[in-house]
């Protein structure tokens, strides 16, 4: 039994050491090496000896050290993705950040906020604070791809500001394939958003 436990511990430590420093990982990445209890025990041991740090429940990271600034926190998006993975949730860039990426807004969010299918929560890693904000499934449609980011931007801008010109701006930033995916996602769009695409096609597409 002790030999088996030692093998599990060695396998987990070796695998963890293979993760890039600063890249969050979850308990699920290690469950194949033993029972959940065994994995948890070994991760707790690695936390105690400083090999890894616990970011949130079931989410860990090997510390990344910069010779000039010291410990470097993982990127907020990677933290959010790992937290979502650990809870089986979906995440999406929040609408304000999505609009900024498409140059539809100059307002930079003060905090790192992500939309999620899971509950509202905050995660703090060093000086980095990440907020996960629960939203409905329609705002999370196409999550993880450029078309989904565009959809989030449209939700954020709202009925009064989504014009054919705005949709043309989004089209100019997306590949033809991604724009086609966005245009086809009518089941996730309120009537005002779907109508904006119809007006866009009349103004920009049929005019060409």
How many independent structural domains?
Answer: 2
The span between the termini is: 74 Å
**Strand composition percent:** 15-25%
Oligomerization: single chain
Shape field: elongated
Low-confidence stretches are: none
Strand numbers in spatial order across the main sheet: 6-7-9-8
Number of helices: 8
Mind explaining what this structure looks like?
There is one protein chain. This protein is α+β, with helices and mostly antiparallel strands and 208 residues long. The chain has eight helices and nine strands. Helix 4 packs across helix 5, helix 5 (146-157) crosses helix 7 (176-184) and helix 6 (164-173) crosses helix 8 (191-205). The termini are far apart.
Could you give the topology of this structure?
Blueprint: H1 2-17, E1 25-26, H2 36-48, E2 53-56, E3 59-61, E4 64-66, E5 70-72, H3 76-87, E6 91-93, H4 95-101, E7 112-116, E8 121-125, E9 128-134, H5 146-157, H6 164-173, H7 176-184, H8 191-205
Parallel strand pairs: 7-9
Antiparallel strand pairs: 1-3, 2-3, 4-5, 6-7, 8-9
Helix pairs in contact: 1-2, 4-5, 5-7, 6-8
């Amino acid at each position: 039994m002790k030999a088996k436990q030692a093998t599990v511990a060695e396998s987990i430590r070796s695998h963890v050491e293979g993760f890039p420093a600063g890249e969050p990982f979850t308990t699920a990445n290690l469950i194949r090496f033993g029972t959940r209890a065994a994995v948890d025990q070994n991760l707790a041991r690695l936390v105690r000896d400083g090999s890894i740090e616990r970011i949130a429940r079931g989410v860990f990271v090997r510390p990344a050290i910069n010779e000039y600034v010291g410990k470097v926190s993982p990127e907020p998006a990677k933290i959010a993705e790992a937290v979502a993975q650990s809870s089986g949730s979906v995440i999406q860039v929040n609408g304000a950040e999505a609009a900024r990426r498409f140059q539809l807004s100059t307002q930079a969010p003060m905090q790192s906020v992500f939309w999620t299918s899971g509950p509202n929560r905050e995660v703090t890693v060093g000086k980095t604070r990440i907020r996960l904000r629960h939203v409905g499934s329609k705002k999370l449609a196409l999550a993880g791809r450029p078309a989904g980011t565009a959809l989030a931007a449209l939700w954020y801008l709202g009925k009064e500001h989504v014009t054919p010109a705005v949709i043309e701006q989004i089209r100019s930033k997306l590949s033809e394939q991604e724009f086609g995916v966005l245009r086809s996602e009518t089941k996730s769009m309120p009537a005002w958003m779907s109508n904006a695409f119809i007006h866009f096609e009349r103004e920009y597409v049929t005019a060409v």
